[in-house]
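Why should sequence recovery work at all? Because a backbone constrains its sequence more than one might expect. Tight turns favour small or flexible residues, buried strands favour hydrophobic ones, and helices have their own preferences. The token representation captures these environments compactly. In the example below, the structure is given first.
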């Protein structure tokens, strides 16, 4: 493609390559999952508790590394530089917390969903409230944002508006619905096993494709500066844009910076701990592990691979600023797409289109499958139809997935055309359900006498207070600091209630016997390596 627009032959090649790759992934997924029993809830929602480390790691990474991350974080890097690296380095640390602290407790109880633990620790009403918060967040925030960011990327890179007479609106609507329909098929008919297998295959392609972009981009930077090679490109990029290469920026230095350094210790770390340790979309693939050891291997492998994250979702944004800043202007979410369109050779366009489509599908179908799991095993089985069989739960889960998918496909284009900075909006909106759920889960795991009344208070107080002061009556502080304050107040309220009116008897967790919970003997050394690597990466850019 280079600097010219996508011509008809290139567009045809892209479409053919996309279809071939997508069909190949679907065929491989079917072949590898055809013998999995999907009739029962464990088979459909937890892949029969048969997942090994490779597919757990691949699915975790690709569920996370979709276009709302690739487009959104590169857009953030385009504007603010390497400060957004914090999202990647803290991810590795948070996954270590999952492997060593949260996952052993989850697997000991034989959970299907994370809110199920809240029922065991508190009561059924607490579980229902958490499920409602999760589902609201998925249908209003997560799923539409995945579709919106995916549609923006595809539209920017592959000139989709040209197929609709130059109409951006029509292109966004068509792309959102195409992605939504394909992703729905994986989630509805393949269950979790279909989701994680397709994730792993697409994940390999995404790592290869994602790493190509900074290398081609740096080569173009060097070429325009009269040099050659990646080393020259990196030298030119860092010397020409020194303001973009400082990860530690205080709000007093730059009031508009998206992640002031102090926020790393308030809302930023809290959102990470919620996302990687309690969010059903991520945690569900670990709940399907064959054993605790396999689950820990998968999580820590994903955490280690996350160290490559800045190359894929930070550096390209800065390269886009250097090469195309005047062209892009303030449209930060178009930075990554513009870079790809400008530097990727035409023969690789179809492959990259398919890879990015796979990343989009991964996050979307993972969200659908997790939402179906929450609804079927919780709301439907516990409240609407207690006598429902496993087969009926799977059937209603598929129907619910379809309803959710259609809702997201309606909301997605509206978000894409009106959201502004996608990643920043996503993190701000996530606080509505992330902060109260994390507070309740932390209290559930680390206290024994705090009662169910405290958990109900936390969910209502945390979500309503954040909604009020983040969106209705905004306070003159960073939303990340607001999240930290509300988290602290929520925990304090729970502890006070626990002191005033504690549980009659301390909670004792029972071992369900569903999974071998013998830990992996190398879990702590690998965790130490990962945390060290994450800190070193952050300090390198500081």
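From this structural description, the recovered sequence reads:
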């Amino acid at each position: 493609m280079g600097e010219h627009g996508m011509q008809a032959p290139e567009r045809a090649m892209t479409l053919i390559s996309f279809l071939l790759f997508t069909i190949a992934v679907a065929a491989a997924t079917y072949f590898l999952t055809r013998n999995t029993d999907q009739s029962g809830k464990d088979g459909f929602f937890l892949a029969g508790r048969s997942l090994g480390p490779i597919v757990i790691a691949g699915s975790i990474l690709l569920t996370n590394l979709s276009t709302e991350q690739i487009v959104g974080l590169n857009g953030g890097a385009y504007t603010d530089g390497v400060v957004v690296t914090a999202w990647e380095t803290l991810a590795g640390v948070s996954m270590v917390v999952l492997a060593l602290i949260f996952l052993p407790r989850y697997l000991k109880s034989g959970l299907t969903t994370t809110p199920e633990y809240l029922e065991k620790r508190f009561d059924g009403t607490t579980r229902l409230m958490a499920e409602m918060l999760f589902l609201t967040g998925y249908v209003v925030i997560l799923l539409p944002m995945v579709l919106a960011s995916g549609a923006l990327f595809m539209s920017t890179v592959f000139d989709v508006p040209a197929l609709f007479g130059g109409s951006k609106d029509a292109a966004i609507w068509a792309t959102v619905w195409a992605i939504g329909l394909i992703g729905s098929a994986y989630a509805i008919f393949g269950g979790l096993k279909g989701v994680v297998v397709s994730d792993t295959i697409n994940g390999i392609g995404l790592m290869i494709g994602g790493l190509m972009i900074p290398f081609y981009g740096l080569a173009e930077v060097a070429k325009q500066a009269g040099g050659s090679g990646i080393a020259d490109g990196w030298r030119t990029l860092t010397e020409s844009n020194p303001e973009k290469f400082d990860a530690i920026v205080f709000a007093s230095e730059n009031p508009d910076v998206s992640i002031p350094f102090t926020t790393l210790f308030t809302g930023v770390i809290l959102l990470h701990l919620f996302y990687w340790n309690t969010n059903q979309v991520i945690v569900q693939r670990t709940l399907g592990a064959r054993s605790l050891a396999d689950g820990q291997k998968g999580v820590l492998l994903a955490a280690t691979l996350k160290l490559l994250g800045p190359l894929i979702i930070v550096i390209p944004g800065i390269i886009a600023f250097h090469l195309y800043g005047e062209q892009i202007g303030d449209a930060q979410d178009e930075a990554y797409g513009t870079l790809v369109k400008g530097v990727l050779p035409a023969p690789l366009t179809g492959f990259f289109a398919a890879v990015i489509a796979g990343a989009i599908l991964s996050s979307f179908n993972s969200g659908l499958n997790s939402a179906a799991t929450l609804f079927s095993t919780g709301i439907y089985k516990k409240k609407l139809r207690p006598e429902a069989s496993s087969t009926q739960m799977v059937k209603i889960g598929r129907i619910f997935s379809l309803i959710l998918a259609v809702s997201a496909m309606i909301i997605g284009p509206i978000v894409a055309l009106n959201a502004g900075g996608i990643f920043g909006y996503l993190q701000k909106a996530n606080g509505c359900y992330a902060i109260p759920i994390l507070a309740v889960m932390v209290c559930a795991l680390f206290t024994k006498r705090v009662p169910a009344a405290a958990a109900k208070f936390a969910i209502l107080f945390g979500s309503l207070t954040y909604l009020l002061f983040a969106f209705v009556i905004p306070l003159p502080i960073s939303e990340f600091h607001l999240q930290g304050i509300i988290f602290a107040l929520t925990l304090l309220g729970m502890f006070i209630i626990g002191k005033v009116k504690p549980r009659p008897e301390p909670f004792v967790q029972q071992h369900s016997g569903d999974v071998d919970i013998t830990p992996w003997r190398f879990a702590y050394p690998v965790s130490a390596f990962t945390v060290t690597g994450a800190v070193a990466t952050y300090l390198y850019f500081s």
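A few observations help interpret the result. Residues 140 and 408 are 7 Å apart (CA to CA).
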